[in-house]
Write a sequence for this structure.
């Protein structure tokens, strides 16, 4: 009897495994058949496809495009969430169906990125995006293996020197939105000075940075310059967490900055750690990536943020139009790639809205340069004078002309931020 | 009138044949899949069969995915094999993580400093040797203190992991590329110097060859050599070993050095054979996962192939179901957890059976109310 039951169970197990086996082949069949069916259902994209045939003829029809995306995190993390929204925006603008976009989340910065990239290429993706700094070398490796697939990597510096035709870097001029968010902070400081809460010489801001790296330094310098443009006596202290996203470290760092006399906090780190500490201490704060009012309704002013949609739309559009994707792409306010999140009017100083509008218009018009060399000094000297003096500053020669530092100018330094000088008024504490 | 009551007690089995045990395990897997299916349906409202087939496709769906799965199985197996001699000796080596990191750091150093100038074969020999020596030293310390002063090896090896992690952090800053990025990037990307060579055009064949070789050698060492016998006697009882004239201290240090050398070698397999970079997450918790692999397989190297394959299979499959169904990797962790629960549970039933016997209860005054 026992034996009979066992044989029965064994048979059941074998059938189950057979079914599972069949299931896999069936699903792959389904995938390929849905590819073909999508070609006749994608009516909305017909105009783009036809216009492309008239212009160059070498593009890929919009309904044939397959986009692969590699994310370092998932929708629970502000930075990746911003990218996911950008991809969604791209798919909507270009009329791509959901099975034309394959997203891989939580891919760490190691060989898993290479595995993911080549796997996406194997699945027939025409273009593969990766969103984290450490993904870069693995994307380059994959790009060399699949010369017909476009590989685009956010925040990396290597495309301009690597000489791989199908490998591209992209970033946005986030320093522009940081500058604008700095103005919001500076006006808040002015309000605190006027109300007698602090004096002009105690107007010290704190900044929670991730790493002492150009991207972060460029970010906090532009934030500081924005604040300084309206509140000339402001100073700033920067501390690092040595992680892009570490909620408890960011919280602790914000607390220690507040304890050190900082009356306003900003951040270049991905979590809500700092705003949470600010809310508890009643210190105004400026966030990054996402609106922080959910955790700091009484202290968050605004957040400097990036809209990745314009790039993703641009890059995929290039494929449809049969054009080459720029090796380095970096746009800001003018294309809507950068912005600040809605002002928290209950906390912001009066007149902030107008000041933000003026600055944004000047940035869009190209009349306001964030890294205007007349607005800052290093060791008491102007950047131009230091460059003329040679030595370590020699390398900045090409970046400075017409009275400003050409940050993220794709022709000079590529799309990644390059400003890595600590200017007067900022204390950067590396432990 | 006498009342009887049924009581249950556990009886140790001694008659379970291998085939029967295997059937038990298959039933356990089947049951676990059914439970998983219920969980999947109730939480995600997805068809469980299609989720399973997604996992299957993710792990072995294409030739490339098969090789990635093989590569990951090979590494996990190697670490588990490395842990085996120490565990057989009842020396709880929880320091595999650190031994992997330090072995990986050593091979990264060879890739950076020697590979560009030395011939490939010589580089490879130095690289493998360096990683084994580095791992060996990392295991020697806790073994020495255990042998000499009877320190707690569990804590000691565990703490050594954090030391290794900090050393790797230091190395990352030392070797970072580009400067300030806090990552080493792919080492020798253009020259492939110090990378495991492709054999027959296959990227990861050398990883497999190394692992198979070490697995067989360890199996032979454990089963057929005097050393292997000595270490299992030490594992049973130090006093027995001493009575039999075995130098316990020597055996502890020797076994642990072998164990950690293999773990160090797996660091080289990861760094030089797969990731070509080094970071604090190079070991990625595999030093601990391997403990599960080794225990589940009851230290049988061939059973370890099955257990490590199961875990890696689920992990690789999870990437696929994440992108296909929007389930993140936690979904596959749940599935893996349920399967492990059933497997561990079934080991219990392979070793024991529950027997019920009728016993008489003496009637006491008012006993029924009590």
């Amino acid at each position: 009897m026992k034996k009979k039951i066992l044989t029965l169970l064994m048979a059941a197990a074998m059938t189950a495994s057979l079914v599972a086996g069949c299931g896999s082949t069936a699903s792959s069949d389904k995938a390929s058949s849905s590819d073909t069916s999508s070609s006749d259902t994608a009516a909305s994209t017909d105009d783009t496809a036809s216009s492309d045939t008239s212009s160059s003829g070498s593009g890929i029809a919009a309904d044939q495009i397959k986009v692969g995306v590699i994310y370092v995190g998932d929708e629970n993390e502000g930075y990746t969430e911003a990218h996911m929204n950008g991809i969604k925006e791209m798919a909507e603008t270009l009329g791509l169906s959901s099975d034309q976009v394959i997203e891989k989340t939580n891919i760490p910065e190691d060989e898993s990125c290479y595995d993911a990239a080549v796997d996406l290429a194997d699945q027939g993706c025409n273009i593969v995006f990766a969103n984290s700094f450490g993904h870069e070398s693995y994307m380059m490796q994959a790009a060399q293996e699949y010369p017909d697939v476009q590989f685009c990597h956010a925040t990396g510096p290597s495309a301009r020197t690597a000489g791989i035709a199908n490998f591209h870097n992209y970033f946005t001029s986030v320093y522009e939105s940081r500058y604008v968010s700095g103005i919001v902070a500076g006006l808040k400081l002015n309000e605190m000075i006027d109300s007698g809460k602090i004096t002009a010489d105690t107007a010290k801001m704190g900044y929670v940075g991730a790493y002492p790296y150009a991207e972060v330094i460029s970010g906090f310098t532009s934030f500081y310059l924005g604040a300084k443009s309206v509140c000339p006596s402001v100073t700033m202290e920067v501390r690092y967490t040595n992680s892009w996203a570490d909620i408890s470290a960011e919280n602790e760092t914000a607390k220690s900055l507040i304890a050190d006399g900082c009356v306003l906090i900003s951040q270049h780190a991905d979590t809500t750690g700092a705003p949470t500490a600010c809310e508890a201490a009643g210190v105004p704060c400026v966030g990054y990536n996402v609106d922080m009012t959910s955790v700091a309704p009484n202290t968050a002013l605004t957040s400097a943020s990036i809209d990745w949609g314009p790039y993703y739309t641009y890059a995929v559009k290039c494929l449809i139009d049969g054009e080459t994707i720029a090796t380095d792409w970096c746009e800001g306010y003018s294309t809507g790639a950068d912005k600040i999140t809605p002002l928290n009017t209950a906390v912001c100083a009066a007149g902030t809205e107008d000041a933000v509008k003026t600055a944004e218009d000047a940035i869009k018009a190209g009349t306001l340069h964030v890294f205007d060399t007349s607005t800052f000094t290093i060791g008491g000297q102007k950047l131009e004078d230091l460059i003329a003096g040679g030595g370590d500053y020699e390398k900045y020669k090409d970046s400075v002309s017409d009275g400003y530092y050409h940050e993220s100018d794709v022709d000079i330094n590529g799309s990644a931020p390059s400003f890595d000088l600590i200017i007067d008024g900022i204390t950067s504490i590396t432990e | 009138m006498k009342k009887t009551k049924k009581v249950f007690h556990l009886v140790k089995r001694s008659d379970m044949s291998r085939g029967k045990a295997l059937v038990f395990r298959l039933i356990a897997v089947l049951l676990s899949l059914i439970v998983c299916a219920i969980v999947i349906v109730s939480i995600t409202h997805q068809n469980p069969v299609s989720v399973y087939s997604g996992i299957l496709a993710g792990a072995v769906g294409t030739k490339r995915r098969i090789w990635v799965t093989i590569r990951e199985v090979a590494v996990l197996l190697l670490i588990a094999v490395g842990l085996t001699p120490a565990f057989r000796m009842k020396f709880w080596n929880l320091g595999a993580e650190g031994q992997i990191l330090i072995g990986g750091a050593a091979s990264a150093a060879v890739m950076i400093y020697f590979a560009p100038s030395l011939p490939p074969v010589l580089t490879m020999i130095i690289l493998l040797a360096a990683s084994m020596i580095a791992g060996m030293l990392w295991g020697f310390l806790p073994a020495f203190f255990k042998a000499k002063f009877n320190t707690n090896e569990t804590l000691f090896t565990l703490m050594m992991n954090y030391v290794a992690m900090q050393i790797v952090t230091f190395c990352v800053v030392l070797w970072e590329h580009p400067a300030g990025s806090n990552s080493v990037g792919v080492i020798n990307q253009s020259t492939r110097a110090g990378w495991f060579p492709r054999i027959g055009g296959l990227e990861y064949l050398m990883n497999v060859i190394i692992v198979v070789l070490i697995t067989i050698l360890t199996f032979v060492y454990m089963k057929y050599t005097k050393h292997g016998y000595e270490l299992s006697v030490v594992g049973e009882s130090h006093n027995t070993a001493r009575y039999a004239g075995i130098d316990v201290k020597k055996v502890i240090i020797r076994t642990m050095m072998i164990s950690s050398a293999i773990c160090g070698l797996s660091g080289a397999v990861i760094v030089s054979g797969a990731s070509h970079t080094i970071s604090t997450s190079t070991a990625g918790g595999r030093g601990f996962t391997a403990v599960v692999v080794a225990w589940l397989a009851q230290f049988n190297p061939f059973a370890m192939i099955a257990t490590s394959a199961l875990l890696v299979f689920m992990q690789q499959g999870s990437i696929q179901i994440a992108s296909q169904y929007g389930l993140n990797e936690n979904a596959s962790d749940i599935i893996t957890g349920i399967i492990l629960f059933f497997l561990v549970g079934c080991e219990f039933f392979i070793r024991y059976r529950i027997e019920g016997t009728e016993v008489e209860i003496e009637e006491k005054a008012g006993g029924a109310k009590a």
